[in-house]
User: Fold this.
Amino acid sequence: GPPGPAAPEAAPVSGAPSFAAWLSARLRTEGLTMEAAARRLDVSTKTVSRWVGGATEPRLRDLYRIRDVFGEPPFH
Assistant:
């Protein structure tokens, strides 16, 4: 059936998915592992896993690479 409402603390402010949710969805769409994504973005796998886990968000320099590889992230 349809998914229930999200918990309020999980709801993003703007209605856009969180960066973490967006990135993990992009990896699934592209069929990439975190290791493969890290290679394409020229960062460590640990960095990608932190982004996907929502622990950190990318610095501007990394955002430019992400945009080149995966397109525009949802947050601005």
Observations:
- The mean pLDDT is 86.
- DSSP finds four helices and no strands in the chain.
- The helical segments are 19-30, 34-41, 45-53, 60-70.
